[in-house]
Amino acid sequence: MKDYSEDDTVGMTRLTPAQEIAYNVLKQALKAGDLLLLTSHTGRGRTTVLRRLQQETGGGFVTSKEFIETSGARHPLSLEEALHAAVAAALDEHDIVYVDDVNLIHDATSSCHFYPRGRYVETAMLELAELATSQGKKLIVSTDGSVAQAFATRSFSASIPRYSARDYACLMDVFAGDRASTLDCEKIFRFAPKLTAHQIKAACDWLRPGGSFDTERFIDYLRSQRLASNVDLSEVQDVSLGDLEGVDEVLRSLEIHIVLPLENDAVATELGLRPKRGVLLYGPPGTGKTTIGRALAHRLRGKFFLVDGTFIAGTGDFYQRIHRVFEAAKDNSPAVIFIDDADAIFEDGEERGLYRYLLTMLDGLESEGTARVCVMMTAMNLSHLPPALVRSGRVELWLEMKIPDAAARARILERHTANLPAELQSLDRTKIVEVTEAFTGADVKRLVEDAKGFYAFDLVNKAATRPATDYFIEAASGVRENKQRYQAAEEAARSRPKSLSPFAGYYPGPPPEED
Fold it and tell me: Which residues contact 37 (CB under 8 A, 6 or more apart)?
């Protein structure tokens, strides 16, 4: 039998540094045992590693193609026998047999509740293991993690670790050749550290028709085609952070602590900047907390993930959906997870599962690979938030959304009235700013919409139209009455027995510094 310590790589399949690690372990294991197991996440090159090893050792190679061909003439419930027959046939002909992607067969037979022979694949794999060892032959299996336990416990195992920038550089050289020399692989890795080999190849294929390769074009492709947010931007109002008035300090903090580390790679890398891991936007309704989320969604695109009212606590898939959002954000890091109206999720005190999950996630965001994920929450009533969730260290940035002052209200009014017909443009803006004291930006927007409605009603009914200012004053009165009703309803809710308030007595603002 061949000496597997030989180093003859001429004409061999090229491996990345991460793949080399697993390859070297398998190469050594071939000298020690008969059963070998290669694991990794999908897209890291398990097939490439096995093919490289087969080039050196020879032997049979069983893939899903052989499995399908063997199972074609069999009963649909004989998948395990088809697997056994395909591998056993290869063992009859070769001293070494490689079985690629065995997880596909394992998942098909063990992950279906209605499959009547659940986990019978364990028996098939155990029999194949014993067949190989009894004949002094070697069986090497690859999987994404799903594999018969009976085989795994008998095997020497190797794993392909997470890619680094060096792996990116190697793959780009393979897929793009000399043109890859113009790509800044370190920058691409920082932007998207969890790309698979398939995704890197797809990016190179996408850029190839354009001729020269460019780092920014590569990143733009990833941002538009590969980094998938859970937000459909076509359904999100197109706003920017600059559209918000009266919260200049909040916007400045967001630019410094969130946007800059995510968008300006060169400066962030040079200074070691990372987005804050926990951010809380709090303030009265209508002050622009959700608007900030909309603006960030458009600004960050594939780096923005939303948890909102469509995630309904108590439903069967609630926790799965939350977990998928966090996993997707980590895969697309650096990224922002925006939890809108977090206080509404926790106000009844029953959502303990999400509470504990968020604690775990926030504490875990300091670890390598996830440190560039920011969790941003909005809240109106801080007393509904669990104290441990927002204590110092977990929420690193407290941003209060305040009621706009007179100057800010004037700018908001100016923006919303800019496209009104001439008859409504003659309003006394100074007067309207005075009567909208304590109005939020959303209140001013509604005032303009209501004023247009009153004016339209007079036109349709052929009534005499009034001065524009009168329509706006009438609208302001209506908005103020609604605000009073809301305040009364809120006070009624607060008057409930304290036992119904899970975090009664919780501080109404940022916590004091810890000793």
Answer: 140, 141, 142, 143, 147, 151, 152, 155, 156, 157, 158
For residue 226, the 8-state DSSP code is I
* Each residue's pLDDT tens digit, 167-215: 999 999 999 988 888 999 998 888 888 889 999 999 999 888 877 788 9
Distance CA 411, CA 361 (A): 40
Does this model's pTM top 0.70? Answer: no
**Residue for token pair 């604690």:** 359
Is residue 493 classed as helix, strand or coil in its secondary structure? helix
Q: Measuring CA to CA, which residue among 496, 412, 406 is closest to residue 448?
A: 412
Burial of 113 (0-12, 13-18, 19+ CB in 10 A): exposed
Strands 96-99 and 278-282: unpaired
The Cα 321–Cα 277 span in angstroms is: 20
Other CB atoms within 10 Å distance of the CB of residue 371: 15
For the stretch 133-166, pLDDT in tens is: 999 999 999 988 777 677 888 999 999 999 999 9
Euclidean distance between CA atoms 36 and 26, whole angstroms? 7
What is the total residue count of the chain? 515
Given the DSSP bridges, would you call strands 278-282 and 373-379 parallel, antiparallel or unpaired? Answer: parallel
Q: Which residues contact 69 (CB under 8 A, 6 or more apart)?
A: 86
Judged by DSSP in three states, 31 sits in: coil
CA distances from 140 to 108, 129, 133 (A): 20, 10, 12
> Which residues does 313 contact at the CB level (< 8 Å), separation at least 6?
345, 350, 351, 354
CA distance 451 to 471: 5
Within 10 Å of residue 152's Cβ, how many Cβ atoms? 17
CB 473 within 8 A of CB 432: yes
Pairing of strands 304-307, 96-99: unpaired
d(CA 14, CA 64): 23
- Cβ contacts of residue 467 below 8 Å, gap of 6+? 426, 427
Long-range interactions of 318-325: CB distance < 8 A, separation 24+:
318/354, 319/353, 319/354, 319/357, 322/354, 322/357, 323/357, 324/230, 325/230
Q: Is residue 86 within 8 Å of 66, Cβ to Cβ? A: yes
The residue assigned the tokens 């074609």 is 72
What is the Cα–Cα distance from 60 to 1, expressed in whole angstroms?
Answer: 15
C-alpha–C-alpha distance, residues 171 and 175, integer Å? 6
